[in-house]
């Protein structure tokens, strides 16, 4: 059995990745500070609580588990928050990743799968983005992830740290078996907020901006099912273990949904209307983020077969009604 160090393994995407790693024959070793993650979500392998900036702790975890690779999910990822406190993002995401990469190199663990974001592209006037699109982030979150991508390239040249970078579009849905799901406190993401509003767990959803240059005036995003997303990570890990070159892959579907379209689909799936009000734009939001994922499909053999809006909301709704974490 082979250990893989999963930073952020107690979070939404990281916990789904741990389940997929275990199914693929690896042992996921979760390293998580529990600042935004949940101990209850660590179900598929050992858990080590620690901060990325705690280099001594990282060194001891690398020595104890001797992982064959790192999957690095741990990050702060909220557009609203990063506009108010950019220092938090540069310290936690950039300095934290630097500490992790230095510990990995020191331990001789040189295969690194990194969770980046479409927010590195910024607002690019209604183009469908691909991996060669220029990166012009408009918020500190996107800027912090772009900086980590740059560090990875430098670390490969200097230290041989080989990497696969995944630039995610919007992730939604949950494990259909209900072992793990999306649970943030505070919650800021569209789908869980909508489901909360539907069943009265919180007030009406606020649509952030109805005056964007899109057909219905609301922002357009490309939503990927979390299970499809983590499948790509397993393929990325195998790619590195087969000795292939470092590579960047977008993970999206090429289809955009406006906020109003997501609301309509939620109404259809749950058979309940989403209470909402129209509000002003949220600082840092791009008008439209949609990806081509042909590279992941062609080169990795990725098959995103669950990433239709109906299935994502159905799985999120099932989790929403039954699942949550206590600690
Ligand atoms: N959104 C919204 N109301 C909310 C939360 C999100 O209108 O309460 C919109 C947001 O402006 C964006 C889309 O929903 O266009 C997805 O936002 P989310 O925060 O889920 O993900 P992000 O795109 O920031 O990664």
Automatic annotation (TrEMBL):
Domain NAD-dependent epimerase/dehydratase, residue spans: 4-252
A Pfam family the protein falls into: Epimerase
Reactions the enzyme catalyzes: UDP-alpha-D-glucose = UDP-alpha-D-galactose
Enzyme Commission number(s) from the entry: 5.1.3.2
Keyword Secreted: no
Recorded metabolic or biological pathway in which this protein acts: Carbohydrate metabolism; galactose metabolism
Recorded GO MF terms: UDP-glucose 4-epimerase activity
GO terms under biological process: galactose catabolic process via UDP-galactose, Leloir pathway
InterPro entries documented for this protein: Epimerase_deHydtase (IPR001509), NAD(P)-bd_dom_sf (IPR036291), UDP_G4E (IPR005886)
Keywords annotated in UniProt: Carbohydrate metabolism, Isomerase, NAD
Keyword Isomerase applies: yes
Name of the top EC class for this enzyme: isomerase
Cofactor field: NAD(+)
Family named by the database record: Belongs to the NAD(P)-dependent epimerase/dehydratase family.
Complexes and interactors: Homodimer.
Name used for this protein in its record: UDP-glucose 4-epimerase
Organism: Sulfitobacter noctilucicola
């Amino acid at each position: 059995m082979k250990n893989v160090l999963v930073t952020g393994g107690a979070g939404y995407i990281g916990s789904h990745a741990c389940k997929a790693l275990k199914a693929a024959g690896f042992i996921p070793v979760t390293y998580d500070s529990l600042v935004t993650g949940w101990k209850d979500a660590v179900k598929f392998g050992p858990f080590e609580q620690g901060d990325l900036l705690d280099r001594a702790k990282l060194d001891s975890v690398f020595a104890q588990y001797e992982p064959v690779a790192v999957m690095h999910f741990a990050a702060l990822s909220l557009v609203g928050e990063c506009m108010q406190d950019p220092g938090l993002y540069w310290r936690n995401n950039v300095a934290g990743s630097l500490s992790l990469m230095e510990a990995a190199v020191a331990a001789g663990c040189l295969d690194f799968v990194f969770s980046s974001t479409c927010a590195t592209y910024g607002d690019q006037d209604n183009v469908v983005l691909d991996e060669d699109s220029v990166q012009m982030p408009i918020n500190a979150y996107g800027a912090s992830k772009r900086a980590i991508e740059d560090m990875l390239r430098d670390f490969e040249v200097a230290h041989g740290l080989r990497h696969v970078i995944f630039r995610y579009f919007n992730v939604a849905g949950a494990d259909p078996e209900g072992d793990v799901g999306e649970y943030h406190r505070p919650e800021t993401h569209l789908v869980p907020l909508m489901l909360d509003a539907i069943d009265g767990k919180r007030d009406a959803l606020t649509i952030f901006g109805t005056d964007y240059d899109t057909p219905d005036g609301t922002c357009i995003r490309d939503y990927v099912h979390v299970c499809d997303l983590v499948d790509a990570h397993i393929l990325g890990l195998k790619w590195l273990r087969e000795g292939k070159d470092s590579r960047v892959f977008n993970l999206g579907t090429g289809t955009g949904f406006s906020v109003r379209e997501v609301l309509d689909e939620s109404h259809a799936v749950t058979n309940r209307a989403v209470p909402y009000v129209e509000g002003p734009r949220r600082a840092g939001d791009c008008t439209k983020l949609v990806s081509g994922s042909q590279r992941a499909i062609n080169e990795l053999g990725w098959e995103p077969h669950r990433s239709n809006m109906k299935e994502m909301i159905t799985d999120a709704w099932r989790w929403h009604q039954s699942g949550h974490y206590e600690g």
